[in-house]
Fold:
Amino acid sequence: MDIIKIKNLEVFSNHGVLKEENVLGQKFLISADIYLDTREAGTTDDLNKSVNYSEICHLVKNIMESNTFKLIETAAEKLATAILLEYSLIKKIVLEVKKPWAPILLPLEYVSVTVERKWHKVFLSLGSNMGDREKYLNDAVEFLKDDKYCRDINVSSFIETEPYGNTEQDSFINCCVSLETLYSPHELHEVTSQAEKNADRKRLVHWGPRTLDVDIVLFDDLIMHDETLTIPHIDMANREFVLKPLAELDPYAVNPALGKTAVAMLADLKKS
Structure:
C-alpha cells in the first residue's frame, strides 16, 4: 500500500490534565502516515483519485483548536478516526501527537502518543428461527448500515437450514454479512450484541431457539481467544450454514487458524 506522509504539522491548542494547559495552551506537532492506493492518481494526475493533504491538515487543525482534551491519547484517537471517516480512500492511518512542552519539571524534547487505526475486514454469520425470521435478519443488516463505523456492507443469499446442536427446534434462516469496520473486535461484539437485544434475543437454552444470532466469524487475519470472544469462530469449519454463505461472498476468505479458504473448508465438510 502507498503512503502519504505529513510530518510535524504545528498547531497551537489547549490540551492537558492541568488547568493551566487548558487555559494558556501550547504547541503540538502532528504527524501522520496515510495508507491508500495512489496508483490511479499517479497515472491520471487527478487529485480526485487521491486525498488532499492540505484538507487533512486543516481538518487536524480545526479538531485540535475547537476541542479541549485532557489526554493526547484522546486527541490522537479523535484525529485518526475523523480522517478515516472523512476520506473513504484511506485504508489505514498511523498518527502521532507530539507535546514538546510537557510540564513534567524535567528537560525533555517531547512526549508523544502514536496510534494505528484502520478499516478491518470482517465476516459475520446471522441466523434466526423464531417469528419473522427474514425480518430479524434484515433489521440487523439495517442496524449495521446505520452505524458510521461500518461500511461496504454486503449480504449473502438467505438459506434455510436445519438446527445445529440442539435439533429439537424449528429450522433457521441464515446468511453471511461482510463489512469493513473501525471497531475493535470487542467493540464490534458489543454492536452485534445490541443487534440481538434489538430483536429481543433471549438466552434461555444453549443452542436453543433464537430470534437473532450474530457471530463474528472472521476479523482480518486475527487469531484470538478470551472469556468473551474466539476469532476465528471456533466451530465455523463444521457449519455449512456458515461456510456456504461465506463462500458466496468471498470463496477465498481464509481462516487463519486453519490456513484454509471458505471453499476448501466447505469441500472438506461435504466430504466428511
User: Anything to note?
Assistant: Residues 2-118 form a domain with the GTP Cyclohydrolase I, domain 2 fold (CATH 3.30.1130.10). Residues 72-86 form the longest helix (15 residues).
